[in-house]
Amino acid sequence: MPFETQPNSVRYLEDGQTLAEVTFPPLEGAVVNVDHTYVSDALRGRGMAAQLMERTAAELRRTGRRAVLTCTYARRWWSQHPDQADLLK
After folding, report:
1. Cβ(66)–Cβ(87) under 8 Å?
2. Sheet of 26-28, strand order
3. What contacts 69, CB < 8 A, 6 or more positions away?
4. What's the pLDDT tens digit per position in 35-72?
5. pLDDT number for residue 84
6. What is the C-alpha separation between 55 and 62, in angstroms, rounded?
7. Cβ pair 47, 10 in contact under 8 A
8. Does position 13 have pLDDT exceeding 70, yes or no?
9. In this predicted structure, what is the pLDDT of residue 5?
10. Sequence ranges of the domains in the chain
């Protein structure tokens, strides 16, 4: 799948269009705010949001950052993945 990881977002692209995305802008120091998850109607029900969160967790781990969660989907995903709790501030 054509995912693109940037310093503060993970996106899923098809034909140059963003069809799914999670954003995590910096707050302070090595802390980001996972504040938004979007999945287009065409991709809903396929586990795309979970894949975005998995890639976000991997990016945070790779870069040594921690997260505050203001996105409701991110809160639910993290509550279901206690093995990733060390990434939360």
Report:
1. yes
2. 26-28, 31-34, 66-69
3. 33, 34, 75, 78, 88
4. 999 999 999 999 999 999 999 999 999 999 999 999 99
5. 98
6. 10
7. no
8. yes
9. 96
10. 3-87
CATH 3.40.50.720 assigned to 3-87: no
Q: What percent of the chain has pLDDT over 70?
A: 99
Residue with tokens 């995590």: 24
- DSSP run (H or E) holding 79: helix 72-79
The closest of 73, 26, 25 to 51, measured between CA atoms, is: 73
Alpha carbons 38 and 28: distance in angstroms, whole number: 24
Q: CA-to-CA distance for 76 and 5, rounded, in angstroms? A: 22
Distance CA 70, CA 13 (A): 24
